[in-house]
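Structure (tokenized):
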């Protein structure tokens, strides 16, 4: 981003407003530094960070206690480090140290990750993305005794998903994660297919999105549950 001043004008409803914006061209500095360390090395409740910022004063031995950050990791956030160099070691509070062979570890930035003697800068505690499962209900003709489902999300197709009998001739199976996308489904008993007709050798499929999809008699309806299931 280049340094300088820019003028921005916005117009709405026949009225205009102008504001001047000054760009410093300088990279923002993170106020704090968070240090991550595997909880399996010294224990989730017995890992300590002994450190100093730049040429400042060291913490009192064994250091500050690190706390649970996410599965398999503990962390400690050093306030107002402002991306200055951090010199540190890790201890268990009972005489065991991870001190880089006596050389100590040195790093800077918003995130410091230490694992197996190696330093990194990418947080191991990435926020998990919530999954969006879909339960598919299918009611075949009475002649079908087993049912398997094929489904497509985007360009990926998953075949031979076994559906289990639920009630009143309905079968179901759950797709673990649709990603919120439209899903194409088709069904087979091992020899015959119900793919909602065929075009150029490809099944048209039954389409839907949402939490549930019910398919029977050549029709598909999203976000409904068969009555017999609702009564259970």
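Design, position by position:
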């Amino acid at each position: 981003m280049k340094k300088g001043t820019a003028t921005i004008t916005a117009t709405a409803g026949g009225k205009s407003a102008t504001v001047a914006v000054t760009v410093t061209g300088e990279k923002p500095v993170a106020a704090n530094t968070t240090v991550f360390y595997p909880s399996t090395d010294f224990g989730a409740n017995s890992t300590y960070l002994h450190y100093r910022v730049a040429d400042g004063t060291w913490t009192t031995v064994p250091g500050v206690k690190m706390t649970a950050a996410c599965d398999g990791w503990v962390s400690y956030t050093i306030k107002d480090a402002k991306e200055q160099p951090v010199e540190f070691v890790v201890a268990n509070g009972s005489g065991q140290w991870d001190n880089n062979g006596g050389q100590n570890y040195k790093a800077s930035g918003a995130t410091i990750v230490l694992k197996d003697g190696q330093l990194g800068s990418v947080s191991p505690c990435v926020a998990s993305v919530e999954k969006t499962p879909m339960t598919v209900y299918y009611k075949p003709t009475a002649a079908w005794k087993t049912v398997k489902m094929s489904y497509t999300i985007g360009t990926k197709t998953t075949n031979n998903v076994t559906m289990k009998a639920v009630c009143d001739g309905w079968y179901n199976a759950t797709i673990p994660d649709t990603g919120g996308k439209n899903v194409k489904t088709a069904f087979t008993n091992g020899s015959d297919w119900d793919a909602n007709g065929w075009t150029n050798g490809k099944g048209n499929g039954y389409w839907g999105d949402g939490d549930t999809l019910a398919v029977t008699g050549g029709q598909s309806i999203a976000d409904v549950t068969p009555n017999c299931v609702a009564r259970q």
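Reviewer-requested clarification: The helical segments are 39-42, 227-231. The mean pLDDT is 90.
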